[in-house]
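Entry: RNA polymerase sigma factor, sigma-70 family
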Amino acid sequence: MSWFDSGLDMKEMLSIEEKALVAQLKRGNCLAFTVIYKKYARQAYILSFKYLCNKTLAEDAVQNLFMKLWLKREDLQEDIPINHLLFTMLKNDLLNILRDSKTNIFVLEDCLEMLNYIDGGDVEEQELEQEQLELIKHVVDKLSPQRKKIFFMKISGKYSNQEIADVLGLSVNTIKFQYSQSLKQIKFWIREAATLCLLLL
């Protein structure tokens, strides 16, 4: 009997199918695990990268999430939606990563597309994760006008330190220092903002 002639609506049918998947997963069924992974891994990666701004850390977070799911499969409760469980587990893992000051969140190379868009580049806004774009824009806008100008000139790849120094009438050492401090400030503010956003979810 198919879902459309069973007297159940699509939402109810999906719920039943998901419970069956969880039941199979609890028994160690690898196919059930693969189905769940394919359904939710991409969403987990997008959420992880949104707050970590580091592709490698985001990939590791997804891998750890599903490894934990497999290791704890026998303790799963079939009446708890698997997406809710995965989200809660991932949220806690991301908060732990953000609270560890040694983790390297915000890898510049991973975020250049968004930064170039903020600086008036040609990247289409709809191609970006809107919430992540707003998060990064928020922290970059907190830089002082001079640091912000130096930062965008540096990441554009069009200017050397000497050329930036000549344009702004500053020393090369000042340019290097201001750029370094800009990166430190951005990392700190992203860590704070991302932690707050996750706590409010």
